[in-house]
Write a structure and sequence with these properties.
The protein is mainly beta. It has strands spanning 3-7, 10-13, 18-25, 28-39, 46-51, 56-58, 66-71, 76-81, 90-100, 106-110, 114-119. The termini are far apart.
Length: 120
């Protein structure tokens, strides 16, 4: 069983910064894509950023402000968020695609979500 534990959310003023972390645990043999999604009230969940072993990609709305990174030794993905705006307010979810010994195939796993609130 794979578990994802997120941390780093909170309340920040516009222009401020936050750093989200997501640590994966369990019988993980290999990690493929790791990423962050967000969902604001009344809106659909959207991709914020994703990272593989060779590349990263970002939503247009966060390019130049957010940076995604990963530490494979710790099975952890990070999201550094700078120059935050009120429209960044949402619940942020991390997701990983992992190969486990139990399942023998890559599956997607999700964290429980962490609230980010940006005040104007």
């Amino acid at each position: 069983q794979v578990q994802l534990v997120e941390s780093g959310g909170g309340l920040v003023q516009a222009g401020g910064s936050l750093r989200l972390s997501c640590a994966a645990s369990g019988n993980i043999l290999s990690l493929a894509t790791m990423g962050w999604y967000r969902q604001a009230p009344g809106k659909q969940r959207e991709l914020v950023a994703a990272v593989t072993s060779s590349r990263s990609n970002y939503a247009d709305s966060v390019k130049g402000r957010f940076t995604i990174s990963r530490d494979n030794a710790k099975n952890t993905v990070y999201l550094q968020m700078n120059s935050l705006k009120p429209e960044d307010t949402a619940v942020y979810y991390c997701t990983i695609r992992a190969l486990t010994s139990a399942r023998g195939t890559y599956l997607d796993y999700w964290g429980q979500g962490t609230q980010v609130t940006v005040s104007s």
